[in-house]
Structure formats: structure tokens, C-alpha cells
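Residues pack. Consider this:
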Amino acid sequence: VFYPDPAQLPFALRSAARDTIGFLYRWNAVLSLLPALALAWLRRDRRGPREVSVTIALGYIGFYGFTNAWSFQYFAWVLPFWLLLPVRAGLAVNLFGTAYIYLLYAYLCGSPLLLGSWDFVGHPHWPLWLRLLRNFTVLTFFVTSCWALLRSLLEARRPPPLRPS
């Protein structure tokens, strides 16, 4: 979503930009799964049902924040887990993710009640407001994932609390 158009870059940078973007597209699956795997590893000692659910939710957020190929059907799988997230992270992710998916479907169906036929191919040029909402949603997922990774890393480095003997 946020890659520069190589044609808009100075001539000397175009080849490097194309190579970098090509690398990121080719390795998208691996690069998108790395935040989820890192969070699972950093949170491996959190084994309660709520903590495991939060880890799953954060893993999906990492995947969605780092991928360049959103798949809407996978978005619905994680919604129940997001309800268990801390309020700040959960509110932002739920608000923007739900708004983007709903408004995109409404736009593609031509109906706020989602009653029309879903026509992705017939709407190749999305309006600016929808593209901005998409970009802001992806950015929210990315920032939330980076925050969760940093926080989990700091918590994993902390020594465990002393237990009375």
C-alpha cells in the first residue's frame, strides 16, 4: 500500500526501488508471518485461555499490518479474539478494521445494507476516501503490531517476579 511508484523516483533510484519492492512481494508471506511467530515466541509462557486468545489476536494484527495482500475472509476469523484485547489496541483495530471492511463491501455492493451483488472487478478505481481508510487501517494494524512486539520483547526481558517460598 505504501510503496512509492518507481516511475516517480529519481532515475538513479528506480532500479533499486523496483528490486526492493519485488523482493518484498516475493517474500510477503514469510515477512508477514514473522511478527506472528515472534509474538507467539515472546508470549509462550502465557498459557491461560485469555492470554492465548490475545496472542492469537496480536498475531493476526501483525500479519495484517505487514502483509501487502489483505484477504477479507481471514479478517472475520480473528474478530472474536479481538474482543479480548486491551481496550486501546482492541478499540483502534476493531473500529478501523470493521469500518474499512463494511464500507468497502457497501461500496462494492452499491448498498449500505449490502444487498447488491458484490462487484470487485466492476469497481477497479476506488474513491479517495476508501483508499485513505484502507491505508489508515493498514497503518493502524502495523503500528499496533510494532507496539505489541516491543511491549512483549520488553516484558520477556524482565526477570520473573519472586515467589514466596
